[in-house]
Amino acid sequence: MRIVFAGTPEFAVPSLRAAAQRNEVVAVYTQPDRPAGRGRGLQPSPVKREALARGIPVLQPETLKAELARDALRALRPDLMVVVAYGLLLPQAILDIPTHGCWNVHASLLPRWRGAAPIQRAIEAGDPETGVCLMQMEKGLDTGPVLLSQRLAIGGSETGGQLHDRLAALGAQTLADGLGLLRAGMRPVAKPQAESGVTYARKLDKAEAKLDWSQPAEVLARKVRAFNPWPMAEAMLAGERVRIHGAIAVPAARGAVPGSVLQAGREGIDIACGDGALRIRVLQRDGGKAITAADYLNARPLPGMA
């Protein structure tokens, strides 16, 4: 089976590997190289690096709306196009080219969390579970019928990065299952998404990672987990900006001013919130590395140390 794969970030790499098993990946589409790192030099995407390592031709158009882009895809004679976190919208003219259309691996249980950041939004919202869907793509944003799905419980202390890795592996397995059925002539049955329960996972914004101590501690603890490793929750602690890598919500007496230090010791630094307290366990000062609260306090004692 001739497959064209479209993807960009690390999340898509396991799916590319799955697509390359027992199929011919004739080309990989990925985002153009972007500036990255301290030197801001152009860097290839993780998917591009994987494709080049496998000797697969790479295409990096700025858009797929031009007729030239359609002609290039037609010339590849794809049986199927697999799309995983590509980052470009596919117009209907592109969706219609492959024999079996375009399949998308999406990291949520659709119709919940359509959009750009389903992994982080699921943790932030306190969802007990998530999963992946293999979807037949159509013009709308993540609106297509679901071919296969797999559920996954979200761990109580799981970060966005940890859940990302588990869902990337699950997505690759789900894709492999779907491709196996298609090769055997048993195309998965497309089931329309439910009309109720639709939510949208808006793109992450660095500004939203600034914690607001007036919010409940449970809400902030979920944000800390969701935004690790990016954009990483940050807050002012005794006049100093820190990034918070690990924290939990704990009970606290009412009446304390949100943002004030309730206590600080080896177990962590408790900060008063709108409801309860956030116990910071791992944090990072500007220019430093992530350290435990105990190590932080050794270098910078705070009022209320235990």
TrEMBL record:
Keywords: Protein biosynthesis, Transferase
E.C. no: 2.1.2.9
Record-linked InterPro entries: Fmt, Formyl_trans_C, Formyl_transf_N, Formyl_transf_N_sf, Formyl_transferase-like_C_sf, GART_AS, Met-tRNA-FMT_C, Met-tRNA-FMT_N
Domain (Formyl transferase N-terminal) ranges: 1-176
Chain sites annotated for binding (6S)-5,6,7,8-tetrahydrofolate: 108-111
Pfam families for the chain: Formyl_trans_C (PF02911), Formyl_trans_N (PF00551)
Protein known as: Methionyl-tRNA formyltransferase
Species of provenance: Cognatiluteimonas sedimenti
Primary gene name: fmt
